[in-house]
Amino acid sequence: MHIVVCIKQVPDSSQIRVHPVTNTIMRQGVPAIVNPYDLFALEEALRLKDVYGAHVTVLCMGPPQAEAALRKAISFGADDAVLVTDRAFAGSDTLATSFALASTIAQINKNMAIDLVFCGKQTIDGDTAQVGPGIAKRLDLQLLTYVSQVETVDTERRDIIVQRRAEGGVQVLKTRLPCLITMLEGTNEMRFATQAGIFRAARHPVKIWDKTAAGIEDPAKIGLKGSPTVVSKVFAPKPKTIKAELITCESDTPKDLAVTLIAKLLTQNPNLETAIGKGAR
Amino acid sequence: MSEDNAPAKRAGGRKIELDPRLAAYQGVWVFVEHERGEAHTVSWELMGEGRKLADKLGVSLSGVVMGAPGPETRQFCQEAFRYGADRCYLMEDPVLADYRNQPFTKGLTDLVNAYQPEILLLGASTLGRDLAGSVATTLQTGLTADCTELNIDPENRSLAASRPTFGGSLLCTILTLNYRPQMATVRPRVMPMAGYDASRSGPIIEHPLNLVETDIVTKVLNYIPDSRQDKPQLPFADIIVSGGRGLKTPENFQLVWDLAKVLGAEVGASRPVVQAGWVELERQVGQSGKTVRPKLYIAAGISGAVQHRVGMEGSDVIIAINNDPNAPIFDFATYGIVGNALQVLPALTEAFRQHLAVAQKAG
Predict the structure, then answer these.
(1) Which 195-214 residues of chain B touch chain A by CB within 8 A?
(2) Which of B46, B135, B195, B325 shows the smallest number of beta carbons within 10 Å?
(3) Please, what is the end-to-end C-alpha distance for chain B in angstroms?
(4) What is the CATH number of the domain that holds A216?
């Protein structure tokens, strides 16, 4: 079985700060990490490798330094890594990104036929959840999003059974291989890298492909040209004209502040009187 | 100056004059999502927003209903009219009984190609996100996910879709220029529900899917519904008490639970607290968690980053407790207490308890 796992290197968004005066992003010193959602996809692929035996290829599109994300994935147990990197990708939106990744996956498939493609549910920097479905559509793969568990894979019969999170319940779905799965978060726990894995990650050659190696012939499909959406402006949310009414009282003890607040709250919003305590247990 | 020789307007350094072939795309569509006989409320929230967009453009608003043949599916068309749709596109087929990506993608793509809307809105639910990504890729058009604000750019009549960016520190506005339809998803509870008018009705336009079950690769073997009790129901709670990093330790989070218990409220949390494992994921409020619109939202030890703000600023009344007087949450809260949440929370719990005891006696 050959499994491709798509991962992305992202800035650790919990450490991004906005400059309080200029409202610009302060990128300095923000560490790059493997998109946390992708780790659930990688772990599920590695779990299938443990159960059924598989060759796991990790794929990343990004700047040259994204190689670090791939080495991290190798340390966990991935067998092979491809970094697809090209200045021509700059400015790609999700449509252009899915085109580039789909084309790369098609190239990987030429060397070794692919049975499964895994993606994370979404990334923490873009939060769109669109690239996985986009890749599936372009490669004409069956799409299984928000998968919480892969029940069985049968490479002889060429089918797979999964549990998929739907609105208000879980769907148990059976489909044909090859297919593309986006993995729900919290469904497994990433293993620790072994000593041997860490050594392997340092030595193992990461394949670095440019757009030609990735099989992309039409430059109009990638980068800004291949992106239907454009960002017209980036802005900080406008502060409300009326700021919070700060509660103060003579003593400013927590108790007096609380009593003053509740009196004001319920006088100015009498409808809340019926809401509070209603569902009290 | 005529339309033809007007100078090309530019946005993001690119021409934004609409290709004449794309001018044929008109009208605003809302995909009406339903599962297990119930419409998802996000569809009616979108209908209200779609109505505003359609009125600004001077075009019609349509609902799109896909499902198994029968009165149940047709009923969603009637509902769509009552929530503001002028007309409905209906696609009925037995293979559409359960949601599956392949037939729904084909169906919605066919409808778009046949009737050419300029804007297509879907809920950012698991279904909507699954479908929107596939349809946008098939149609080779732009899709903006998880918008918190939709508007019409007055200069070029484009959909201006705003959403948080950079991990929720800032907002950005995204345009889809020379591509149609312009697609966007909006998360549940971000927009208020549309008004309901039982007297409204409209025409239904039926369109066939032309697929049979043997064409469809993926089969639904089983469906396990969630039991409602064991999951927190934040999106529809009347009161929510949320805690953030300002509470300092997971043990202190108990103070949030205590206040919530007295108020009969749900408990929410900010992203850092959920990531630290203090409370379960279902309680996360914000762009990457739940969006809520309670009557009362109490935020304790939460600074109010955009990430969190977009998930709760639709609340009727917001009380913020934070020891930093410059915390952004005071910019959009209704009431603020500058103070230590570890002291103010128990004081509030006690004061509400006493108020309720008095009110009960009086009542």
Answers:
(1) none
(2) B325
(3) 71
(4) 3.40.50.620
B72 lies within 8 A of chain A by CB = no
Give CATH for domain B11-215: 3.40.50.620
Residues of A in contact with B306 (CB under 8 A): 236-237
Structural domain that includes position A202:
2-221
The domain ranges of chain B are: 11-215, 234-362
- Tokens 């279902």 belong to residue: B282
Q: Are B288 and A236 an interchain contact pair (Cβ–Cβ within 8 Å)?
A: no
CB contact under 8 A, B281 and A228: no
Residue A27's CB is within 10 A of a number of other CB atoms, namely 10
Name which CATH class applies to B234-362: alpha beta
Distance (Å, whole) CA B356 – CA B363: 10
Contact B140 A13 (CB under 8 A): no
pLDDT tops 60 at residue B6: no
What is the domain count for chain A?
Answer: 2
- Asked if the model's pLDDT at residue A15 lies above 50, the reply is yes
DSSP state of B85: -
What pairing do the DSSP bridges indicate for beta strands B335-338 and B34-35?
Answer: unpaired
Residue B259: strand, helix, or coil: helix
A94 touches chain B (CB under 8 A): yes
Q: What is the pLDDT of residues B280-313, one digit of tens each?
A: 988 999 988 899 999 999 999 999 988 899 899 9
Q: Shortest CB distance from A246 goes to which of B36, B169, B338?
A: B338
Q: Mean of the pLDDT values across residues A157-162?
A: 97
**Do B339 and A257 contact (CB within 8 A), yes or no?**
yes
Put simply, the answer to whether B179 touches A228 (Cβ < 8 Å) is: yes
Does residue A83 sit in the same domain as residue A137? yes
Do A272 and A266 form a contact (C-beta atoms < 8 A)? Answer: yes
